[in-house]
Amino acid sequence: GTHDNSRPAACDTCGGRVVQRADDTEEAIDRRLALYDSETVPIIDYYRDQVERGPQQRAFTAQLRLARELDLPAIVHIRDKDGRWDAYDDVARLIEAEPGVRGVIHCFTVDGAHARRYLEAGFMISFSGILTFKTAADIRATAAELPIDRIIVETDTPYLAPVPYRGRTNEPSY
After folding, report:
1. Strand, coil or helix: 76
2. Are 88 and 78 in contact (CB under 8 A)?
3. Tens digit of pLDDT for each residue in 6-43?
4. DSSP 86
C-alpha cells in the first residue's frame, strides 16, 4: 500500500500494489486487491502531517480487515515525528480492535511497552539496520527483551544499511 503523503493524486495503483487512500472504502480497496495477493500494507504516517489522522485510521482499519478476511499478513508501516509516539499508540489501539489479524510491525524503532502490545495482538516485530546505529541503544535493549521466535530481521533495502555500510544503498548481503 501507499498513502496520501506520497502518492500521485490520480494514482489508483502504483507498481501493481493496492493503494491505500485515506478516503477508501473497503469495497474500493477490495476492487484493487485482485492486483495484490500476498499481503496488505496498512500505513499510519504522522511524520509530515499532510493527511488528517481520522481518514488514515479508517483506511488502516480497512486494510487490517481485508488482511483478516483474506488470511494475509498485514505488514504495518508506522512513522511519527521525532519525540512523538501518537502513531505507535494509534496503531496499537487499532490492531487491538481487530482481533485475528496477523502480521509484522515493519522497521520497529520504539519501546518495549509498544512491542509487547503488538506481540500480544499477534504481530511479529521486525528490526532493520537501525539496530546497529550508535544512537539505537534503546532499540537494542528492546530487541533483547523480546522472544526470539517473534523477531524478524529485515534489510528494508535500499534504505537503512547497517553499520559499517551506513550511507550506502542497503542490500541483503549486509
Report:
1. strand
2. yes
3. 443 333 333 334 445 555 666 766 665 555 556 678 88
4. H
CB 52 within 8 Å of CB 22 = yes
Cell 503523503, located at residue: 5
Q: What is the per-residue pLDDT across 55-107, written as a single tens digit (0 to 9) for each?
A: 899 989 999 998 998 899 999 999 988 888 999 999 999 999 999 999 999 99
Distance (Å, whole) CA 88 – CA 108 = 10
For the whole model, what pTM was predicted? Answer: 0.79
Q: 103, 75 in Cβ contact below 8 A?
A: yes
**Amino acid at position 109, single letter:** T
CB count in 10 Å sphere of residue 73: 16
Dump strand ranges (E) for 17-93: 17-18, 43-45, 74-79
Q: What share of the chain is helix, strand, coil (3-state, %, to 5)?
A: 35, 15, 50
Tell me the β-bridge partners of 105: 76, 125
DSSP characters over 93-133: HHHHTSTT--EEETT--S-HHHHHHHHHTTEEEEE-GGGGS
